[in-house]
Amino acid sequence: MKKLLFLPLLISIFGIGFLRAYDQELVQAYDYAYDMGITTMPNINQANMYGNLQRSHMAKMVANYATDVLGLVPDTWKICEFSDIDNESDELKWYITKACRLWLMGIGISKFEPKWIVTRAQFGTVLSRALRWDIYNEWNPYYGRHLKALRAKWIMNNIDNPNLTEKRWYVMLMMERADENYEAPEIIDEEDEINNDLVDLSDNPPNSNVSVTDKNMYSNIVYDTQEGVSLKLHLLVPERSDGKDAPLLLTFSAKEVKLSENSLDLLEQEMIERWYAIWKASLRFYEEDSKFPDAYVDAKSAVRYIKANASQYWINPDKIAVMGSSKNGLIAAAIWTMWEEIQYDIWKNLNYNSKVAAVINFAWHTDLTNFYQDGMDDPQVKMDEKTYEAKNQQFLWCPAFECDETEAAASSINYIDEEDPPFYMMIGSEDNLVPKIQLERFKDKCDDEWVAAYFEVVDGAPHSVERYLEQKHVNRLVSFLVEYVE
What we know:
Layout: H1 2-14, H2 24-35, H3 55-69, H4 90-101, H5 120-130, H6 144-152, H7 168-180, H8 191-196, E1 212-226, E2 229-240, E3 246-253, H9 266-273, E4 277-282, H10 294-308, E5 315-325, H11 326-337, E6 358-362, H12 371-377, H13 385-396, H14 404-409, E7 423-428, H15 436-448, E8 453-458, H16 465-468, H17 471-484
Parallel strand pairs: 3-4, 3-5, 5-6, 6-7, 7-8
Antiparallel strand pairs: 1-2, 2-4
Helix pairs in contact: 2-7, 3-4, 3-5, 5-6, 9-17, 10-11
């Protein structure tokens, strides 16, 4: 009988929460939050660790954290008036005002929405501001660089879902991590910081655990017809031993192409054996009467066709990689950066976009606006007004030195943003057609926009795709595709 009385007695003293288990990390986070005044609950069971967090309560937590841990001082001259906090307790009203005067919450708004449940985006932004990373405020979406800054500093690892409902335990844990990792404010999108966030690609890619049982060839598939020109795809699809749909490696050609097992380059051979489908597409590039943006329109159309018909060819539409070189690299880069530019989506399969999972590109002009000047400044590159004129007339159909607007529109560097997929770029140290500064500038822009981008200069290589596809380079490219596509 005594045992039956013992359980209700424990519940009445400690509360039913004692039955819930907490791992060591949560216990440590609670202890930290209590010691620092972030929570005033005297034990972990009363702290509602797994509960959602309202904005009014976050104001209290972050205000205490900012002043007691980080040593920030409220701006008492700042006017903080909100029309919807009258029903809050005097304590919460005081903390809401304090969080506002710390320039952490309620900035530029007249309604505080105290009952709203906090999301990962909202909390991450407030925590980043508290760490004095308000340098990332002017961004769209507002939370974008704040969350990436926290991840780069190993404070917040999971930022994939900004709409995730925040939990109290996570807020305490992130504040503890930020305290442990806190440093003086700095711009953290410098190249050395970004590169630390890149996956270290192996020179010995892992073996595939899926075998290829057979291969099926599809030739002369008309994916679109533009101005009387039939645009064709050629496809080699492996049959996988596990029966799943294959990832795809897509390349483009300015001319009519054929595809066979004997025509595959080394990377394509490697990938077909790793159960990738190989797909080559022809474009209007140097066709008579063809001009910008015809080839870009065609390339986007090809990707949309693939996605729309993926099941017919046993392709996984979410695992498409694109590869290009030189003038075809213009197209591959355009697919990568211009997938959001719907003005180039014309006619067919418009309920699909042309976004791909990853891009590999070799020695292409990233910035046509500076194509001529970069070439003139690089003593290794063959550039003169005649070459410049020929390139513009062939591709852009506009006179040299009178083509700034079209050159800018055709330049992949002008479209890079943080939503773009991972990129691997290569150029030879002896390339005499493409100035290396063009790829260096492209890599810098990727870093600025927090895009995962790898850049390799192949020692002693001219403007030649054969050198980029030597075995040692192919191994890293395979690792790149394994990491970001498979």
